Amino acid sequence: MVIYTVLILTAGGSAHMNHKINYRQRQIEVGSISVKVPIIEMGSQRGPSLSITCGVHGNESTSILLVAELVKKLEKIKLQGSIKIILLSNPLATLFNSRVSPLDYQDLNRIAPGNPKGTCSERICHTIMEEILTQEYFIDIHEWPKTETMIQGIVINEQDNSASMEMMKIFNPQINVILNANCYSNSIYAFAHNKKGKKGVALEIPNSNVIKNDDKKRIVASLLNVMAYIGMLNNQYETYPTENITIEKTFP
Questions:
Q1: How far is CA 145 from CA 2, 16, 59, 148, in A?
Q2: Contact partners, residue 239, CB within 8 Å, separation at least 6
Q3: Ordered mean pLDDT values, 10 residues apiece, the chain (252 residues)
Q4: Long-range contact pairs involving 104-110 (C-beta distance under 8 Å, separation at least 24)
Q5: What is the predicted pLDDT for the residue at 184?
Q6: Burial of 133: CB neighbours in 10 Å, binned 0-12, 13-18, 19+
Q7: What per-residue confidence (pLDDT) applies to 113?
Q8: For residues 112 and 24, is the Cβ–Cβ distance under 8 A?
Q9: Which pLDDT belongs to residue 3?
Q10: What pLDDT score does 251 carry?
Q11: 75-100: b or e for each residue (b if 16 or more CB lie within 10 Å)?
């Protein structure tokens, strides 16, 4: 029900400012099965460009809920540049409320850059990478298991003054995690960031069953602040306390 509500909210709508909401689908054929990946686009080709991935794991729906709130906000704001939201990155897994697709049991977030002639998940991953790589900046949203926990931001192999680190500081999660390049090198975020030079962060946010309204507001406002930082919006939005934890991990 949540997914269809988001689609109805956004499909074919016109924004209140000078940009349209464009809804389209990427269709992926695997034998007799056809999988459609829905995508929301707003803005114009002039200016910064950002992509956001939602629902890479099918049992993580919080990002899909928050996208509806983000799009509502963006409808009323003058947008400079373009935003592309991969609304449902793993449709079959979402349909079965499963972390992975029931067709091949592959983790979509461990097989980047995918394969256009491979398994269903590999083909979906390849399609998602094609969409992401058209944009300059990238945010990949995941969620914790069914527990109540803090909002976490992740960057891989970055220096303190990098654009990706600045994006994480602007988002201001309660936990900052800095990983080295060997960590999850075949994840969608790591591949786009390390191999293709896309600036951005990955996020871990509370599960939809336990997330608080204050956290929802904080995440949406923080996403808007990141968009302002990269030059897509003119205003700063609500900010939150700066106390947080920084964790650095090195993997062989």
A1: 19, 37, 9, 9
A2: 172, 221, 225
A3: 42 48 94 94 93 96 91 91 96 95 96 97 98 97 84 84 91 91 84 92 92 94 96 88 80 58
A4: 107/57, 108/56, 108/57, 108/188, 109/56, 109/57, 109/142, 109/184, 109/187, 109/188, 110/184, 110/186, 110/187
A5: 78
A6: middle
A7: 97
A8: no
A9: 46
A10: 61
A11: bebebbbbbbbbbbbbbbbbeeeebb
Sort 69 into a burial class: Cβ within 10 Å, 0-12 / 13-18 / 19+: middle
Which of the 8 DSSP states describes residue 109? G
b/e map 134-169, b = 16+ CB within 10 Å: ebbbbbbbbbbeeeebebbbbbbbbeeeeebbbbbb
Cβ neighbours of residue 197 under 8 Å, at least 6 residues apart?
Answer: none
pLDDT at 111: 97
Q: DSSP letters of 114-157?
A: --TTS-HHHHHHHHHHHHHTTSSEEEEEEE-SSS----EEEEES
- 55 token code pair: 């629902």
* Residue 140 near residue 56, CB atoms below 8 Å: yes
